[in-house]
Amino acid sequence: MASLIQGSGITEVLEVKGRIVFNDQRLCWQRRRRTFFRTKDLVLGSILILIVLLFAALAPVIAPSPTKQDLAARLGPPLWCGAQSHGHLLGTDPLGRDLFSRILWGSHVSLLVGFIAVVIAGGIGVPIGIIAGLYGGWLDTVLMRIADIQLAFPDILLALAIISVTGPSLLNIILSIVICTWVRYARVARGSTLVVRETAYVEAARALGASSFRILARHVLPNIATPIIILGTLQVGRAIITESALSFLGLGIPPPTPSWGSMLAEGREYLMIAWWIAMFPGIAILVAVLGVNLIGNGLRLVLDPKLKV
User: Fold this and answer.
1) Which end of the chain is more exposed for a tag (fewer CB within 10 A), N or C?
2) What is the CATH number that goes with domain 37-303?
3) What is the pTM of this model?
Protein backbone atom coordinates (compact mmCIF):
# COMPACT_ATOMS: atom_id res chain seq x y z
CA MET A 1 0.00 0.00 0.00
CA ALA A 2 1.40 3.36 -0.99
CA SER A 3 0.10 6.70 0.19
CA LEU A 4 0.58 10.34 -0.81
CA ILE A 5 -0.64 13.08 1.53
CA GLN A 6 -1.42 16.42 -0.07
CA GLY A 7 -1.53 19.79 1.67
CA SER A 8 -1.81 19.43 5.41
CA GLY A 9 -3.24 15.98 5.38
CA ILE A 10 -6.76 17.01 4.40
CA THR A 11 -6.93 14.62 1.44
CA GLU A 12 -5.15 11.30 1.38
CA VAL A 13 -4.76 9.27 -1.80
CA LEU A 14 -4.34 5.58 -1.12
CA GLU A 15 -3.50 2.83 -3.58
CA VAL A 16 -5.04 -0.33 -2.16
CA LYS A 17 -4.84 -3.50 -4.27
CA GLY A 18 -4.54 -1.51 -7.47
CA ARG A 19 -7.44 0.82 -6.70
CA ILE A 20 -7.21 4.54 -5.94
CA VAL A 21 -9.20 5.57 -2.86
CA PHE A 22 -9.66 9.18 -1.75
CA ASN A 23 -9.82 9.57 2.00
CA ASP A 24 -11.20 13.01 2.91
CA GLN A 25 -10.37 13.98 6.48
CA ARG A 26 -13.91 15.28 6.89
CA LEU A 27 -15.09 11.72 6.49
CA CYS A 28 -12.58 10.71 9.17
CA TRP A 29 -14.10 13.20 11.59
CA GLN A 30 -17.58 11.92 10.77
CA ARG A 31 -16.46 8.40 11.59
CA ARG A 32 -14.90 9.63 14.80
CA ARG A 33 -18.16 11.29 15.84
CA ARG A 34 -20.02 8.06 15.18
CA THR A 35 -17.54 6.11 17.25
CA PHE A 36 -17.98 8.45 20.24
CA PHE A 37 -21.03 6.63 21.55
CA ARG A 38 -19.45 3.26 20.81
CA THR A 39 -16.43 4.06 22.98
CA LYS A 40 -17.41 2.96 26.47
CA ASP A 41 -14.54 4.74 28.21
CA LEU A 42 -15.37 8.05 26.57
CA VAL A 43 -19.08 7.82 27.33
CA LEU A 44 -18.61 6.74 30.95
CA GLY A 45 -15.91 9.34 31.57
CA SER A 46 -18.08 12.08 30.06
CA ILE A 47 -20.98 11.09 32.31
CA LEU A 48 -18.80 11.18 35.44
CA ILE A 49 -17.31 14.57 34.57
CA LEU A 50 -20.72 16.01 33.70
CA ILE A 51 -22.00 14.90 37.09
CA VAL A 52 -19.05 16.56 38.84
CA LEU A 53 -19.50 19.76 36.82
CA LEU A 54 -23.24 19.78 37.46
CA PHE A 55 -22.82 19.48 41.22
CA ALA A 56 -20.10 22.14 41.17
CA ALA A 57 -22.36 24.51 39.24
CA LEU A 58 -25.32 23.87 41.55
CA ALA A 59 -23.29 24.24 44.76
CA PRO A 60 -24.49 27.82 45.47
CA VAL A 61 -28.11 26.68 45.07
CA ILE A 62 -28.35 23.26 46.74
CA ALA A 63 -25.58 23.53 49.35
CA PRO A 64 -25.58 25.83 52.37
CA SER A 65 -22.49 27.73 53.46
CA PRO A 66 -19.53 25.32 53.64
CA THR A 67 -18.02 27.29 56.55
CA LYS A 68 -21.10 27.47 58.78
CA GLN A 69 -20.41 25.71 62.08
CA ASP A 70 -22.86 23.89 64.33
CA LEU A 71 -20.99 22.40 67.27
CA ALA A 72 -24.14 20.68 68.50
CA ALA A 73 -24.08 18.57 65.30
CA ARG A 74 -20.34 17.87 65.21
CA LEU A 75 -19.30 14.42 63.93
CA GLY A 76 -22.87 13.71 62.89
CA PRO A 77 -23.19 10.58 60.71
CA PRO A 78 -24.75 10.56 57.24
CA LEU A 79 -28.50 10.93 57.05
CA TRP A 80 -29.15 7.22 56.44
CA CYS A 81 -26.93 6.03 59.32
CA GLY A 82 -28.96 7.17 62.31
CA ALA A 83 -31.18 9.73 63.98
CA GLN A 84 -28.22 11.78 65.21
CA SER A 85 -27.32 13.04 61.74
CA HIS A 86 -29.18 16.35 62.39
CA GLY A 87 -30.45 16.36 58.81
CA HIS A 88 -27.04 16.45 57.09
CA LEU A 89 -26.97 14.23 54.00
CA LEU A 90 -23.33 13.14 54.27
CA GLY A 91 -22.83 14.00 57.92
CA THR A 92 -20.71 16.69 59.52
CA ASP A 93 -17.05 17.26 60.35
CA PRO A 94 -15.41 17.93 63.76
CA LEU A 95 -16.65 21.56 63.67
CA GLY A 96 -20.20 20.65 62.70
CA ARG A 97 -19.86 21.86 59.12
CA ASP A 98 -22.02 20.14 56.50
CA LEU A 99 -19.85 17.64 54.63
CA PHE A 100 -22.03 17.61 51.50
CA SER A 101 -21.67 21.38 51.15
CA ARG A 102 -17.92 21.26 51.66
CA ILE A 103 -17.47 18.54 49.03
CA LEU A 104 -19.49 20.50 46.48
CA TRP A 105 -17.65 23.75 47.14
CA GLY A 106 -14.33 21.91 47.24
CA SER A 107 -14.93 20.76 43.68
CA HIS A 108 -14.54 24.39 42.58
CA VAL A 109 -10.94 24.42 43.77
CA SER A 110 -9.98 21.05 42.27
CA LEU A 111 -11.60 21.69 38.89
CA LEU A 112 -10.29 25.24 38.69
CA VAL A 113 -6.74 24.17 39.48
CA GLY A 114 -6.94 21.17 37.16
CA PHE A 115 -8.18 22.93 34.05
CA ILE A 116 -6.32 26.25 34.42
CA ALA A 117 -3.00 24.57 35.19
CA VAL A 118 -3.34 22.29 32.15
CA VAL A 119 -4.18 25.17 29.82
CA ILE A 120 -1.28 27.32 31.01
CA ALA A 121 1.21 24.44 31.04
CA GLY A 122 0.15 23.44 27.53
CA GLY A 123 0.36 27.03 26.35
CA ILE A 124 3.97 27.15 27.54
CA GLY A 125 5.18 23.63 26.78
CA VAL A 126 3.68 23.13 23.32
CA PRO A 127 5.31 26.18 21.67
CA ILE A 128 8.65 25.30 23.27
CA GLY A 129 8.42 21.74 21.97
CA ILE A 130 7.41 22.84 18.48
CA ILE A 131 10.24 25.37 18.26
CA ALA A 132 12.75 22.79 19.46
CA GLY A 133 11.53 20.15 17.02
CA LEU A 134 11.07 22.44 14.03
CA TYR A 135 14.36 24.30 14.15
CA GLY A 136 16.62 21.80 15.94
CA GLY A 137 20.30 22.65 16.35
CA TRP A 138 21.63 24.36 19.47
CA LEU A 139 18.19 25.73 20.36
CA ASP A 140 16.78 22.21 20.55
CA THR A 141 19.74 21.08 22.64
CA VAL A 142 19.40 23.92 25.16
CA LEU A 143 15.62 23.59 25.58
CA MET A 144 15.69 19.82 25.96
CA ARG A 145 18.57 19.90 28.44
CA ILE A 146 16.52 22.29 30.57
CA ALA A 147 13.63 19.83 30.32
CA ASP A 148 15.93 16.95 31.30
CA ILE A 149 17.09 18.82 34.39
CA GLN A 150 13.52 19.40 35.52
CA LEU A 151 12.53 15.78 34.85
CA ALA A 152 15.22 14.74 37.33
CA PHE A 153 13.04 16.12 40.15
CA PRO A 154 9.82 14.31 41.19
CA ASP A 155 6.78 16.49 40.58
CA ILE A 156 5.44 16.41 44.13
CA LEU A 157 8.83 17.31 45.65
CA LEU A 158 9.28 20.20 43.23
CA ALA A 159 5.75 21.43 43.96
CA LEU A 160 6.39 21.20 47.70
CA ALA A 161 9.58 23.24 47.33
CA ILE A 162 7.82 25.93 45.30
CA ILE A 163 4.88 26.19 47.71
CA SER A 164 7.21 26.24 50.71
CA VAL A 165 8.98 29.28 49.25
CA THR A 166 6.01 31.18 47.80
CA GLY A 167 3.40 30.26 50.42
CA PRO A 168 0.09 28.39 50.09
CA SER A 169 -2.49 30.06 47.84
CA LEU A 170 -4.57 29.19 44.80
CA LEU A 171 -2.29 31.12 42.45
CA ASN A 172 0.87 29.53 43.83
CA ILE A 173 -0.60 26.03 43.56
CA ILE A 174 -1.44 26.61 39.89
CA LEU A 175 2.03 28.06 39.34
CA SER A 176 3.73 25.05 40.94
CA ILE A 177 1.72 22.59 38.85
CA VAL A 178 2.50 24.53 35.66
CA ILE A 179 6.23 24.49 36.43
CA CYS A 180 6.07 20.75 37.10
CA THR A 181 4.11 19.76 33.99
CA TRP A 182 5.07 22.06 31.08
CA VAL A 183 7.99 19.77 30.25
CA ARG A 184 5.64 16.89 29.35
CA TYR A 185 3.90 19.00 26.72
CA ALA A 186 7.26 20.16 25.39
CA ARG A 187 8.50 16.58 25.05
CA VAL A 188 5.37 15.34 23.30
CA ALA A 189 5.17 18.35 20.99
CA ARG A 190 8.87 18.05 20.09
CA GLY A 191 8.61 14.34 19.31
CA SER A 192 5.52 14.82 17.15
CA THR A 193 7.09 17.80 15.37
CA LEU A 194 10.23 15.80 14.55
CA VAL A 195 8.03 13.23 12.80
CA VAL A 196 5.89 15.77 10.95
CA ARG A 197 8.74 17.95 9.68
CA GLU A 198 10.18 14.99 7.73
CA THR A 199 6.95 14.30 5.84
CA ALA A 200 6.64 14.94 2.12
CA TYR A 201 4.05 17.72 2.34
CA VAL A 202 6.18 19.76 4.77
CA GLU A 203 9.21 19.37 2.53
CA ALA A 204 7.10 20.40 -0.46
CA ALA A 205 5.76 23.46 1.35
CA ARG A 206 9.28 24.45 2.36
CA ALA A 207 10.51 23.99 -1.24
CA LEU A 208 7.68 26.20 -2.51
CA GLY A 209 8.85 28.99 -0.23
CA ALA A 210 6.23 28.76 2.51
CA SER A 211 7.10 30.76 5.61
CA SER A 212 7.83 29.08 8.91
CA PHE A 213 4.60 30.48 10.35
CA ARG A 214 2.55 29.02 7.50
CA ILE A 215 4.22 25.63 7.85
CA LEU A 216 3.58 25.74 11.57
CA ALA A 217 -0.08 26.79 11.30
CA ARG A 218 -1.12 24.72 8.27
CA HIS A 219 0.97 21.57 8.56
CA VAL A 220 2.54 21.09 11.99
CA LEU A 221 -0.17 22.08 14.48
CA PRO A 222 -3.06 20.13 12.87
CA ASN A 223 -0.96 16.97 12.77
CA ILE A 224 0.34 17.07 16.34
CA ALA A 225 -2.94 18.13 17.95
CA THR A 226 -4.14 14.60 18.75
CA PRO A 227 -1.37 13.54 21.18
CA ILE A 228 -1.42 16.96 22.84
CA ILE A 229 -5.20 16.82 23.40
CA ILE A 230 -4.93 13.35 24.88
CA LEU A 231 -2.03 14.38 27.12
CA GLY A 232 -3.87 17.49 28.30
CA THR A 233 -6.93 15.45 29.22
CA LEU A 234 -4.89 13.02 31.28
CA GLN A 235 -2.96 15.85 32.94
CA VAL A 236 -6.19 17.28 34.38
CA GLY A 237 -6.45 14.22 36.63
CA ARG A 238 -2.79 14.52 37.62
CA ALA A 239 -3.30 18.20 38.50
CA ILE A 240 -6.32 17.36 40.68
CA ILE A 241 -4.30 14.72 42.54
CA THR A 242 -1.36 17.12 42.98
CA GLU A 243 -3.61 19.83 44.40
CA SER A 244 -5.25 17.32 46.74
CA ALA A 245 -1.83 16.07 47.88
CA LEU A 246 -0.62 19.59 48.62
CA SER A 247 -3.81 20.38 50.54
CA PHE A 248 -3.49 17.09 52.43
CA LEU A 249 0.00 18.13 53.54
CA GLY A 250 -1.23 21.55 54.65
CA LEU A 251 0.26 23.47 51.71
CA GLY A 252 -2.92 23.91 49.71
CA ILE A 253 -5.73 26.44 49.84
CA PRO A 254 -5.70 28.16 53.25
CA PRO A 255 -8.72 27.48 55.50
CA PRO A 256 -11.62 27.97 55.79
CA THR A 257 -11.93 27.45 52.01
CA PRO A 258 -12.89 23.78 51.53
CA SER A 259 -10.59 21.48 49.58
CA TRP A 260 -10.85 17.74 49.03
CA GLY A 261 -7.27 17.20 50.14
CA SER A 262 -7.62 19.18 53.36
CA MET A 263 -10.87 17.35 54.12
CA LEU A 264 -9.00 14.06 53.79
CA ALA A 265 -6.37 15.35 56.21
CA GLU A 266 -9.06 16.28 58.72
CA GLY A 267 -10.76 12.93 58.40
CA ARG A 268 -7.69 10.75 58.97
CA GLU A 269 -7.80 11.54 62.70
CA TYR A 270 -11.39 10.31 62.96
CA LEU A 271 -11.31 7.18 60.80
CA MET A 272 -12.39 4.90 63.64
CA ILE A 273 -15.30 7.02 64.91
CA ALA A 274 -16.30 9.16 61.90
CA TRP A 275 -15.29 7.35 58.72
CA TRP A 276 -17.46 9.54 56.50
CA ILE A 277 -15.25 12.62 56.96
CA ALA A 278 -12.45 11.05 54.90
CA MET A 279 -14.43 8.59 52.80
CA PHE A 280 -16.66 10.97 50.83
CA PRO A 281 -13.93 13.46 49.82
CA GLY A 282 -11.86 10.45 48.74
CA ILE A 283 -14.75 9.22 46.59
CA ALA A 284 -15.06 12.70 45.05
CA ILE A 285 -11.38 12.67 44.07
CA LEU A 286 -11.78 9.14 42.70
CA VAL A 287 -14.78 10.05 40.55
CA ALA A 288 -13.19 13.22 39.13
CA VAL A 289 -9.84 11.63 38.31
CA LEU A 290 -11.43 8.45 36.96
CA GLY A 291 -13.70 10.51 34.74
CA VAL A 292 -10.91 12.53 33.09
CA ASN A 293 -8.71 9.44 32.71
CA LEU A 294 -11.52 7.55 30.99
CA ILE A 295 -12.07 10.52 28.68
CA GLY A 296 -8.36 10.61 27.86
CA ASN A 297 -8.29 6.89 27.08
CA GLY A 298 -11.46 7.20 25.00
CA LEU A 299 -10.04 10.11 23.02
CA ARG A 300 -6.93 8.05 22.34
CA LEU A 301 -9.09 5.29 20.89
CA VAL A 302 -11.16 7.69 18.79
CA LEU A 303 -8.44 10.04 17.54
CA ASP A 304 -5.62 7.59 16.96
CA PRO A 305 -6.15 6.00 13.51
CA LYS A 306 -3.82 3.13 14.41
CA LEU A 307 -6.20 1.84 17.07
CA LYS A 308 -9.52 0.14 16.59
CA VAL A 309 -12.45 0.83 18.87
Assistant:
1) N
2) 1.10.3720.10
3) 0.80
